[in-house]
Design goal:
Blueprint: H1 8-45, E1 52-56, E2 63-68, E3 78-81, H2 83-91, E4 95-96, H3 102-106
Amino acid sequence: MNDLPPDLPRLRILETWLQLSLDRVRQQITAAERREQERQRGEQARPPVPDWMIERGIGEGPAVYVHVGGCHMAGKRSKGVARDVALRALAEGVAACPHCRPDSELGYLDG
């Protein structure tokens, strides 16, 4: 059983339709490959996660929390800092994040 039309005009129409469909699929493949390359470049260009972060209050308010780098609870107002800056902030009374426990990670004993 043949599912293709027997006459040349309809075969040409089918050929044209298949060619247009194939062109659209190839365009989508090209676009998907481009998006994947951009995603990979973005991952490679992403700066490393800081070891320690300090989260500030609204505006340029005082420090609110000290976090371990990459803490999921760190807000948008967090900034990466060096280890000694994080220790100094804890010593000055800035609260340690209760989720990531930077005081334990830093070996900081309160008091």
